[in-house]
Structure formats: C-alpha cells, structure tokens
Specification:
single chain; 77 residues; 2 domains; 4 helices; elongated
Length: 77
C-alpha cells in the first residue's frame, strides 16, 4: 500500500499545477459523493430486521437495558 501511495505521489508531482488542482478537486468531489451515500438501503435494513441472529442480539440488548426503563424519566420530554 505504501509503495502504491509513493508511486501516486511521484506521478502527481510530475503533473502541472493546473492538473494537480484539477485532480485534487476531482478526488474531493469523489470522496464527498461516497461519504454522502447511505450506509444501508431500505432493503438492507429490512433484511437485517428479519435476520434471526440480529433479532436475538436486539432482544438481548433490550433485556440488558430493561432496568433503565424504570429509571423514572418522562418519555414526553
């Protein structure tokens, strides 16, 4: 991986300043688009919700925090 990065940096240094700026802008745009993509689709969430293993884990988490429901906090807040 480090060797690939060094090669990319070496090639980048050979570009003109205008090309370097253009490339960096493209990379930033690509990163922003990837970061804005949803982590899971509705179909993915539906599959997860129906997965028996996930249902067991959710039930265990609910059991673990059941006492917290009795802590006297008002849910209307």
């Amino acid at each position: 991986m480090l060797q690939n990065l060094a090669q990319i940096e070496s090639e980048f240094a050979r570009l003109s300043l205008d090309d370097q700026i253009h490339l960096v802008e493209r990379l930033v745009r690509t990163i922003r688009q990837r970061a804005a993509q949803p982590l899971a689709s509705d179909a993915d969430l539906a599959r997860m919700a129906s997965d028996p293993d996930i249902q067991r884990k959710l039930a265990a988490a609910n059991d673990a925090f059941a006492d917290a429901e009795l802590d006297g906090l008002d849910e209307t807040l």
